[in-house]
Specification:
This protein is of the alpha/beta class. It is built from twelve helices and ten strands. The protein has a six-stranded mixed beta sheet, sandwiched between helices. Helix 4 packs across helix 5. It is found in: Cell membrane.
């Protein structure tokens, strides 16, 4: 599948001498769900800021839709319509007086008609479940509500690719499930999604493909099954195995599952592998 976005040997050092990225190469296919894992300081956020031109590589190149990124004002404006970023802290994105005004801001700056802007805003609010908040001041929203407004403001731009920097950070379990369900809905619309996360369980069950960063370098890449079966890679990146794989291995070792049982992708897959009469003895 052709790449929608590519980084080719990208390096970047901050003015204080911190080398954030070292010859990073990766490829994001159209319509796929990509997770980027790594410890704090691995370079994930810096990499994301290169993807829509906020930062410019000091070495290497970024390509979008097969073309090398052009850093002229017009070209960057066009790129940021196609590549949206939802930052970890929604307060860094929200500045308008009301939810509707916040979501309208981007489409209005595209020069669209009022009718088209209204349609986009309504669709984005419906998709994120915040239609009832449209007249509420953004500073009165809960943290989870602010997250949804930030996502809606990017959806209203109708990008082809959306980047989420730690989308579940500081959310309670219910809000985390809601956000991940929303990301799944967005993916079903055919949009490519990249997210960074420290949650290996989310990365394993959600992603089509995973990149692992450490020290500003890509130290591993592969499917979730490939990444989390590589003990050496997990140790190097300071990552744990998902609980699902630990339970799966334990059940096999105890004889609850046959040795040939396929590796489950999620909890329902795992329960489906267990004989019905044995399920009542387990508490998963």
């Amino acid at each position: 599948m052709a790449a929608l976005l590519e980084a080719e040997r990208v390096s970047f050092t901050y003015p204080d001498g911190t080398q954030a990225l070292q010859h990073v190469t990766l490829s994001i296919p159209e319509g796929k769900k990509i997770a980027v894992l790594g410890p704090n300081g691995a370079g994930k956020s810096t990499l994301f800021l290169h993807f829509n031109g906020i930062l410019r590589p000091q070495e290497g190149c970024i390509y979008f839709a097969g073309a090398r990124i052009n850093y002229s004002h017009k070209a960057l404006t066009d790129l940021r319509q196609q590549v949206g970023i939802v930052f970890q802290d929604p307060d860094s994105m929200l500045f308008s007086a009301s939810v509707r005004q916040e979501i309208s801001f981007g489409p209005l700056n595209l020069g669209l008609s009022r009718e088209e802007v209204g349609q986009r805003v309504e669709a984005a609010m419906a998709a994120t479940g915040i239609t009832g908040l449209q007249d509420k001041p953004t500073h009165f929203l809960s943290y989870g509500q602010k997250k949804r407004v930030a996502i809606a403001s990017v959806l209203a731009m109708e990008p082809r690719l959306i980047i989420f920097d730690e989308p579940t950070a500081y959310l309670d379990p219910r809000s985390t499930r809601d956000v991940m369900a929303l990301l799944e809905d967005i993916s079903r619309q055919g949009k490519a999604i990249i997210l960074s996360t420290h949650d290996v369980d989310i990365a394993y069950t959600w992603a089509d493909y995973i990149y692992v960063l450490a020290g500003g370098q890509v130290i591993g890449a592969g499917t979730p099954a490939e990444i989390f079966s590589d003990a050496t890679l997990l140790e190097a990146a300071g990552l744990a195995r998902p609980w699902l794989l630990d339970v799966y291995e334990d059940l096999k070792n105890k004889g609850w599952l046959p040795a040939t049982a396929p590796v489950p992708k999620n909890k329902d897959d795992l329960l489906g592998l267990i004989p019905y009469r044995s399920r009542s003895k387990l508490a998963i």
